[in-house]
Amino acid sequence: MNIHLKLNGKDTDLVVIQDESLLTALRRAGMWSVKHGCETGECGACSVLMDGKLVPTCVMLAPQADGHAIETVEGMSEINTIHPIQKAFTEMGAVQCGFCTPAMVLATKALINKEMYPTLEDARDALSSTICRCTGYVKPVEAIMRAAAMLRGEEVPPIDGGGIPMDIAFGLTGESDLGRDLPDFVKGGSGSEVKIKKDVKIAPWVTPESQTDVVGRPEIKVDAVKLAKGKPAFTDDINLPGMLYAEMLTSPHAHARIRNIDTSKAKALQGVHAVLTYKDVPRVIYASGGQSWPNPKPWDQVSLDNKVRFVGDRVAVVAAETPEIAREAIKLIDVDYEVLPIVLDPREAGKPGAPVIHDEPDAVGIPDASHNLVNVVDAVWNDVDKVFAECDRIFENTYYTPKQQQGHIEPHICITYWDEDERLVVRTSTQVPFHARRMLAPLIGLPIKRIRVIKPRIGGGFGGKQEMLIEDLAAHLTLATKRPVRLEYTREQEFTSSRSRHPMYVTFKIGVMNDGTIRALDMNVISDTGAYGSHSLTVASVSGLRGLSTYKADALRFHADIYYTNKAPAGAFRGYGAPQGMFGLEVIIDEIAHSLGFDPLEFRRRNAVDVGDHIPISTALGEGGTIEQYVLSCGLQECFDKAAKSIQWERRNDPKWRVDPERPNIRRGLGVATCMHGTAIPGLDMGGASIKMNDDGSFNVQVGATDLGTGSDTVIAQIIAETLGCRLEDIIIYSSDTDMTPFDVGAYASSTTFISGGSAKKAAEIVRRQIIDRAAKMLETTSEGMYLRHRQAIAADGRSVSLEAVALNSLHTVDQQQIMGTASFMSNYAPPPFGAQFVEVEVDTETGMVRVPRMVMAVDCGTAINPMTASGQIEGGQLQALGMAISEGMEYDTEGNVLQKRFGDYRIYEADEAPEITAILVPTYEPSGPYGAKAVAEIPMDGVGPAVSNAIFDAIGVRLRELPVLPEKVWKGIQEK
Amino acid sequence: MSKTKEFHRPDNWSKAHQLLKRSDVQTVPLVVGPRPIALDDRAGDAFVDLEKLHLNYIQLGEDGIVHIGAMVTLQDIYQSELVKSQAGGVLTEAAYFSATLGLRNLASLAGTITNAENPPDVPLALMALDAVVTVQKDENQTHQVALHEWMKDCTKVLLPGEAILEVGFPAQPTASGALVRINRTPRDKAILAAVAVLYIDNGLCSKASVSLAGANPAPVRLLEVETLLKGKSLTSELLAQAAQLAENQAQPLGDYLGSVVYRTAMASVLTKRAISQAMNATK
Ligand code: FES
Ligand code: FES
To answer: Residue A190's pLDDT is what?
Structure first.
């Protein structure tokens, strides 16, 4: 049917299908900024303004727009122009992955049209219907206030400042070599003594007052403008001729054998091009976790199997002319299931008589399949039992963390097609393009060289896309049909058929002396990997690594048993085992402090590791081999100071603050947790970068690093710009295309700034050397003392030549040469970032409801290459972590059906209910990182859960050892007190 | 192959009724609630958009009734000064907590009271305001159902051919009201919620309406509690008795958000809290 509407101010006729969504119709009309994140109107990514009001279009029929005015962000600016609201969003760092940004921009427009002087409350209300999984809403709210001021014609303060001292950034010599101050053991030498080397030669241009020009500054993200303008930057934002739509048939049973499967009716349906089952694809065993070669075992999956192991497991896949036909075909597939008994609790899965989930003979590397035991991890340092025997007190308790869903707003989506060279192109929303290519090749029987994986912008990943989850199915269908195929998860499938955080039972046993000295830690884990073992070994190892690194001790022991259950598989999720380990650790540390009569903050201060301390457990648990680790930089004590001051820690001692005369059922409390994370996997993670100079002195950069919204492209470009003495806009960065860019392991393990940034810095240093050599020749001087700054190569005598002149000279004039450099970076050292997390709670003593008015986290991430993106990570991470503490936990019924299949039921914090969130950066200089940087992305996940639990104890004296702290759990604790 | 579903936007009731009463094509009014059902999962082979039927009014009638048209959005309710002036603005608050802005702009009153999975706040507030649903039976005929009866099984009340016309309740500018909720996060759908609307004259409660959700399979009016409170001074002892009555009548279905034991206990806590907050609001 035809509908007539005003689309971005223009009278427009659209041909629509009567029962299609307005979302679909608008995207078909080229409004790519209107995003799909769910089907139930709850994420807001599809929102537009209809007659000036924000509405979600996924739950509206296209004909409902007939006669109305529809606005999308495409209508807000032209090429080379930007609307003040979009500008404010880019300047304030409100754009992370950018998937939610068009909706937020429109919400802002609707608000400011109505109210030129919005309050913070108005701003939060306006953003409330757009779930943002990245930002914690702090910067989007600030962007609204800035946009309103701009639109009122007021002058707004520049977003500027920052920088780090030149002498720190470049060393006293003016050289910026990576790792110039490193002790020998990091460089691969032996010995455990930590000494920082200093050079005494001083470069003329490095003065104590001078600051870096690009590094350490809140530069606008290189992709922010296009995302704020809603440009077609994501996987789904293309339309390929002849593209087919894929749908998955998933299992309704938690455990069943497929006796037979009849696809004849589905195949006969007009418009269906392929129906694939286990009968149609080769049986190749693999592990879906996106990890380095060889993938950690077990290898327990095949593309399509004759057995299903959880509700939501793959049964068949269909490609058809339209999504509707594909869905219809799915209904026509007849499956004869032999339903098998199930086990859902990992504590039961290993017991005699429990159903065996992996009884297939060809699985590889399952230690004890008959008892559903996926992996066992053991690590020990010194004699734990002997030290326990010497301790004054021993504390022991078990802690549970739930199955949390990543909840990236862009679902998993993949489009596969043959290119003109008959190579398979996989355009996919992945964190691991290079791993995906390598892992996909054997499944579809193509050599790696005939596959190209392209990662466009990603609408959030958080580990959920560190997985080769759907690429194989789309590829099988393209192979079968020879047509482009698009496969996208629905939101429900994200809950039923995707990955999640591993639920864990963590038992800590800690021996201490009465003077408050921790002597020994023993950590025991039961981990639930669900139906497949993806990431299970390494996630549990990281739990041990993080649980046993933060505090000094004389002996450490770790044991983990990982079990299969008939639930959706767990996988990677931001923090990767650390939040589970740190929850147990930081709650039991609190319990010990209280029991011994210490202030919990002081107890942490006196036992936490510091500069020079050895991290012995890393030798036993490191994925990259047995590499000694020491702490080279640590701002933890300053983090405690600053965050404690910000949250007003001393209020704990004020009985008047603890109660609210207006609400006698409310008790207030404060909680603290120490955070310590890792930066990349030492001895394993590697990234590459390649830089070439253009005629105008700009640079093309290719990196394998995968920016999943965190701003890594920007951070890498900043590192290169600083090293090459140019501006950020002189760097044109292209990332994550297996044909075009060097290898990178991908975006995980908090590695990108450190590893990919390290390779970028090394490559830039190669280019820098070439520029300086050529400039020296042009100026007929020596390269000694020459440096690059302000787009110039400046000689020691003060004469200079522009980078553009250097480029033209080298490309066209004399001794022609392409100035370029390629480098890769791997580190044997994983510098830990540190953090102090504080949380304020209000507990309703009658109902058990917990409210969190405020969270503060101070983080030592070394040098924050971009303080805006770094603080954005800390803000957003805290809110994601608060979700796990308060509301997010996937629950299953007795048949193995997940109970939360939509955002509303699962409950991610929205803008108008999120607490006040503070991020404090505590700068240190990490000698092993580019410009002193360490990681920041994952550490915000670690402390909120335990700090909430500790704050509840502070408020009402009830110890919650299980997340999320649903009202009933707290209420029960109060009843039992 | 399943057929494309029809879409109709009639410009008068007569046409709407002709469409809705068809027996060969399952035809339903197109309404969205604060917890929308995905388009693919919506029942019906044909949708009738009621946009042109002028059902987006909120007005105080000469009959002393506040009339709210079926297609009035939750945002319209939230922003209405008339609604805000009733029973201390309890319905305003309920509309706000039912959905975030985008869905408040889309969800209609009709959509809010026709799906039991929706957040209970608006139905609870309206029940406590003695609301009555008016249903257009056919072109000329309407019939009325008390909302607390309607909510017993809100998906089954409408018959083929019928559509909700409006919800009305007696104007209650002098009443006080309170909405109290238990949830995981401040805006989360309530695990349990209660509304109290009170008239306090000279220290005595001349009329009380109390509704409760989450402690029974469907939201209920606590008629015994209302009778108990009527004509009495709301002492703490009386409140304790009211709470006990609420607990006694609770027959919850337990789930992971609240067991039977918890929901039963909270029936008492919330009932008492709603009454005492409404009482305090009068001071
Ligand atoms: S609200 Fe429409 S896509 Fe999520
Ligand atoms: S920036 Fe909001 S979802 Fe990523």
So the answer is: 42
CA distance B278 to chain A (A): 14
d(CA A54, ligand 1 centre) in Å:
12
What's the Cα-to-Cα distance from B32 to each of B56, B73, B105, B112, rounded to whole Å? 14, 9, 10, 7
Q: Is A264 helix (H, G, I), strand (E, B) or coil?
A: helix
Respond yes or no on whether ipTM tops 0.90.
Answer: yes
Domain edge (last residue) among B149, B173, B197 = B173
SS3 of residue A862 by DSSP: strand
3-class state of residue A206 by DSSP: coil
Ligand 1 center to B256 CA (angstroms) = 26
Chain CA centroid to CA A600, Å = 30
Mean pLDDT rounded to a whole number for chain B: 95
**B155 and B184 both lie in a single domain:** no
A-B interface: how many C-beta pairs under 8 angstroms? 135
Q: B34 and B153: one domain? A: yes
Tens-digit pLDDT profile for residues A57-76: 999 999 999 999 999 999 99
SS3 A609: coil
Q: What are the tens digits of pLDDT across the range A236-260?
A: 999 999 999 999 999 999 999 999 9
In the sheet that B58-60 helps form, which strands lie side by side, from edge to edge? B58-60, B65-69, B163-170, B132-136, B142-146
Residue in chain B nearest A265 by alpha carbon: B1
Long-range Cβ contacts of A805-808 (<8 Å, 24+ apart): A805/A697, A805/A778, A806/A693, A806/A697, A806/A771, A806/A774, A806/A775, A806/A778, A807/A693, A807/A694, A807/A695, A807/A696, A807/A697, A808/A695
Q: Would the CB atoms of A325 and B1 count as touching at under 8 Å?
A: yes
Task: Please name the residue whose Cα sits nearest to atom 4 of ligand 2.
Answer: A97
What is the predicted pLDDT for the residue at A587? 98
Residue with tokens 């238990």: B182
Total number of domains constituting chain B:
2
CATH number at residue B201: 3.30.390.50
- 3-class secondary-structure state, position A57: coil
Closest CA of chain A from B86, distance in Å: 23
Confidence grade of residue A196 (pLDDT, cut at 50, 70, 90): very low
Per-residue three-class SS string for B115-182: CCCCCCHHHHHHHHCCCEEEEECCCCCEEEEEHHHHHHHCCCCCCCCCEEEEEEEECCCCCEEEEEEE
Among A residues 325-384, those touching chain B with beta carbons less than 8 Å apart: 325, 327-328
The CA-to-CA distance between both ends of chain A, in Å, stands at 65
User: What CATH code would you report for A504-680+830-976?
Assistant: 3.30.365.10
Distance CA(A937)–CA(A347), nearest Å, equals 32
Give the DSSP letter of residue B184: S
| Identity of the residue numbered A627 | I
User: For A54, which residue in chain B has the nearest alpha carbon?
Assistant: B102
Domain A686-826 has CATH 3.30.365.10: yes
Q: How confident is the model at residue A197 (pLDDT cuts 50, 70, 90)?
A: very low
User: What digits encode the pLDDT tens for the residues A251-309?
Assistant: 999 999 999 999 999 999 999 999 999 999 999 999 999 998 999 999 999 999 999 99
* CATH for the stretch A244-340+410-459+465-496: 3.90.1170.50
Residue of A nearest to B37 (CA): A40
Domain A2-75 falls in which CATH fold? Ubiquitin-like (UB roll) (3.10.20)
Using DSSP, state whether A723 is helix, strand or coil: helix
